[in-house]
Each structure stands twice: as structure tokens, then as C-alpha cells.
Amino acid sequence: MTRAPGPNAEPAAGMQIAPVPxxxxxxxxxxxxxxxxxxxxxxxxxxxxxxxKVNMGGASAAIEAYRSSPTPNLVVLxxxxxxxxxxxxxxxxxxxxxxxxxxxxxxxxxxxxxxxxLIGLGVSDYMHAxxxxxxxxxxxxxxxxxxxxxxxxxxxxxxxAKGGVGASTIAHNMAWGITTLYSAPAVLVDFDLSFGTSGxxxxxxxxxxxxxALASAEGLDAQGLEKILFKCSxxxxxxxxxxxxxxxxxxxxxxxxxxxxxxxxxxxxVVLDLPHVWTGWxxxxxxxxxxxxxxxxxxxxxxxxxxxxxxxxxxxRPNDSQPKIVLxxxxxxxxxxxxxxxxxxxxxxxxxxxxxxxxxxxxxxxNNGQMLHETDPSSKINETISDIxxxxxxxAEPARHAKKSILAPLTALLGRAKAS
Length: 420
Description:
Blueprint: E1 24-29, H1 32-42, E2 51-56, H2 58-66, E3 74-78, H3 83-94, E4 102-107, H4 112-120, E5 125-128, H5 133-144, E6 154-160, H6 167-181, E7 186-190, H7 198-201, H8 210-215, H9 222-228, E8 230-231, E9 236-239, H10 257-266, E10 269-273, H11 280-287, E11 291-296, H12 300-316, E12 324-330, H13 340-347, E13 353-356, H14 359-368, H15 372-375, H16 381-393, H17 400-406, H18 408-419
Parallel strand pairs: 1-2, 1-3, 3-4, 4-5, 6-10, 6-11, 7-9, 7-10, 11-12, 12-13
Antiparallel strand pairs: 8-9
Helix pairs in contact: 1-5, 2-3, 6-16
């Protein structure tokens, strides 16, 4: 057993949990309730690389199992409430444990002295039953992932229910808005390898792109990542798409894992601009994000696709909040539309934001390589984008005076516009 670095408290609300690496886990439970909770934890997106097996019988069954079999990376044991018996069983089990095997104990006693004694023996964590699924995932993550305190970055995936609904525009303006609204560093990653528009929308021509990152993904480190990041401003960097057709891309599901893992560890906010395709790698990237935003428009094809995406996300992310819906291009002239109310009733989710059609604003922004606020600071759409950002940044309202101070420059601009 390896010595734990310190106590493992239940994760605070909003804290990011790092994905668990490819490890083997075997649990030996005394109660069905604990076995069920651990099985549910195994379905969490952050545990999808692990190999988990849940057994009954507690520590006694574990001792018998490992007399003749090697121990996995992690052993989870549920005690029956007798501290002396548990400590004796751990001592016996230690004779069979391979070096490097970690142990998490679950028990009914909320006993700080027992906790300290177990940690002193090299146990990674002691959890009080009943087991909270997310707390268990956090405990496993902490045992195997080295992070700098609570500095793990938040990953926000933005994808369109259909091509041409403005998902990239929303993603780019969100990344820009995070840096201006909260003065927080952010990275935008353009995953549309062949047709990405991040370079155009920010009026930049980065010398290195996501294609270069893929070419060196196996050996990519923090220093290599810095070469791929292109600074648009002091706070905002982008990983642009190559937007070249000389090469086609047939990628495996985990192709982008090294890049995203590095970004999580180095940047507080990572915005992923995902193309409208459905492949193994895109599904994996989307399901692995901390927040998902689905951009859609009020027509039948969008409604169907949006509902299908929501169904996939609910199954693949059972312990996460549901994706946020942005209903874009509402009120397009001469286009028959589904009303926002009917659209909401059909998908069963209230939109986080409804953005009206504004061809002049969005067209000028794209053609000039500017963000929406830079193109027209007085547009109400800027406030809608800000609301979307607040929803994923978990900045609770009422933050009325905070909101007022944050938007003071915008308010001043609006006042000057009215005065003129």
C-alpha cells in the first residue's frame, strides 16, 4: 500500500474532478447499497477508462481472492463497523498486496481516530457510508491524479445540433467573453480540422495549429503545448484549425485526450469549438467536458438532432447536469419556425438563452474578424452571451451589484449612445 498525501474531503460544489487514468479497480462490499453506489460511480464519465469489478464479502473475501491472485491498482474495501477487526484484516491483506496498490476503505463509523489510523497505515482514503457517488469518483481521482490544489481547469464544449446554426460564433464569443467579463485566462480550441474559422474570426494567422498538436500528441508536454497556443490577447489563447484539405482525418476515440488533459492542468477555462460531425472522438470529447452547450435553431431537423443529443448526453453523463441549450437565429425572415415554447416542450429543456436573428451584426462580425461586442457594443445580444457565460462559470445570481459592476463599461456605452 502507498502512503496517501493527506485527507480526502468530499468535493466542494463546482470543484473540477480530473478524469481517472486507465487503472484496474476491485471493490469488496458488505452491503448492496455500497455495491450499487460504486457501480454507479463506474458509469461516471471521469471513470470511463477504468476497469471496475464489484464483489461482495468485504475484506475477508479480498484476503481470499489475493492469496493466489495479483492485486489491482486500487482495492476498495467496505468494513462491517468493527475497527479492531478491520485493522487486523488490513494487516493480513498487506501481506498479499503488490507494491503500489492503493486502498480506499468504506465504513459506517464517522470516526476521526480511525481515519487517522488508517491514513497512517497507508490507506488512500476512508469514506463514511452511505457512499456518495461523486465523492467516491473524487476520491479515486485524487489517489491517482496529481493536480495543483483545486486549479484543475473547466472544459466547456460547444456544438451545433445542425451545421450552420452558429455554434462556432457562440464558442468564440464565449471564450473572448470569459477573458473580458471575468479577467480570467481562457483557451479556445477549434476542432473543425478542415474548415475551422477561429483564425478568421479573431483575424489571426497562427503559425501552428491543432494538426501540429495531433502530430506530436504522443509526446506532447507543457512546453510543446505552449508552442501550439497562439495568444490573441493577454488572457486569451487559441489552438486554431489548419483549415486545409490536403489531409483527411481518421482519428481514434482518444486522439485528443493528451491535449485536453494538458489544457485542464494549465488553464482555468478551456472552450472547445466542436464541428457538426458524429464520430467516436467527437462523442468522447463532448461527453468528457465539464459543461456542454448545444446551439440549435427553431426548425424540425434541429429539434430532432437536439433531442437525440440530449438523450445521448443523459446516458453518457448520469452524474452531470444536463447540457445547456442556446436557441439561435430566432425570427429569421420568411423562414417557417417552431416557436420557442413548442421547441422547449418537445425537448423537455428550457433554453439557457434565446438569440434573435441579426444578419447585420453577425455578418459584420465575421467579415471583420471581430467579436460581437467589438462590432456593436450596444447590441443586447452581448448581454445574452454574458448570461450564457455566467451559467457555465457558475456565477450565481442574484449578483445584481456584481453584475452591474461587471457590465459598467457596457452600460456607459449604452448611455452615451442614447445621449447622442
